[in-house]
Design brief:
Shape: globular
Largest sheet: 7 strands, mixed
Strand content: 15-25%
CATH class: Alpha Beta
Number of strands: 12
Structural class: alpha/beta
Radius of gyration: 17 Å
Number of helices: 5
CATH superfamily: Metallo-dependent phosphatases
CATH architecture: 4-Layer Sandwich
């Protein structure tokens, strides 16, 4: 039997003021790729987009059970930028959980959001919800590409073994699958990392979804039969792909509703 200490676990409300909604369905709000950087000319526009997104999420009825950020929270990893982001995110009503992207600094993110590093990675599980969440760190210093080494694979294996019967969603930055609508569909230096993850997931019937960022676009596929998705960057100036006219100039986030067997997702445009 796996020891409970094998992977760090956050109980329910780590960051955020909301209460757990224990009634089905579970609702996850996902944001990604905010790329906040004080030194950029677009910095104020991106901060305003994040602020308006927080207002829109807080206005949802029913409220999401949890909000996840799938990486590239800031652009360049400066600690001061994490404080700027946290000042806005602290207004969220619901609990909030991030994972790093290639533009993040994991130590600075961990410090700002009180996250515990596991073997040097931001990798953890979140319990207390109808669906268990496991955040995965796919970043490598000084590279834009994803990495999922054996240490991280083993951390994930241990996390999944702790609650092998409970429906679980994984969230990470780099998609471990080819995003065929992208000019650069493969975003790992070693595609064998993705094969190793896929092989692990064959054994894990409880994994219900993979939520990813990085590609700055909507994309839907599967990994070994498990639904896997990316979403548009919250920052409008970085978004890729085609969108309806009413979404072109608005920050976007996604809502994922658990129906007891799968997640049903919707892309939501922020209305100022």
């Amino acid at each position: 039997m796996m020891e409970k200490e094998a992977i760090f676990t956050y109980e329910q409300n780590h960051f955020g003021k909301g209460e757990i909604n224990r009634k089905a369905p579970m609702i996850i709000a996902q944001i990604s790729d905010t790329h906040i950087c004080q030194g950029l000319a677009v910095s104020q526009m991106r901060l305003e987009g994040l602020y308006q997104t927080v207002k829109s999420i807080n206005a949802l009825d029913p409220q999401p059970d949890v909000i996840i950020h799938t990486g590239d929270m800031v652009h360049g990893g400066e600690l001061e930028d994490y404080w700027r982001v946290k000042e806005i995110l602290s207004q969220l009503k619901a609990p909030f959980f991030p994972v790093p992207g290639n533009q993040d600094d994991r130590e600075h993110m961990a410090h700002a959001f009180d996250l515990k590093l596991q073997e040097g990675f931001i990798q953890y599980s979140v319990d207390g919800f109808p669906v268990r969440l496991v955040g995965i760190d796919t970043t490598t210093p000084d590279s834009k590409m994803g990495k999922f080494c054996n240490n991280r694979l083993n951390l994930l294996r241990k996390a999944l073994a702790q609650e092998g019967e409970k429906s679980t969603a994984l969230f990470m930055h780099h998609p471990p699958f080819a995003v065929e609508t992208s000019k650069y569909p493969h975003q790992y230096d070693d595609w064998g990392d993705c094969d190793n993850l896929a092989e692990l997931l064959i054994e894990q019937d409880q994994v219900a979804h993979l939520f990813c960022g990085h590609s700055h676009r909507n994309y839907v596929t599967d990994v070994r039969g498990i639904p896997a998705t990316t979403l548009p960057s919250l920052s409008v100036d970085l978004r890729m792909g085609d969108f309806p006219e009413h979404q072109l100039k608005s920050p976007l986030f996604q809502i994922h509703k658990w129906d007891g067997g799968k997640f049903v997702s919707e892309t939501v445009a922020v209305v100022n």
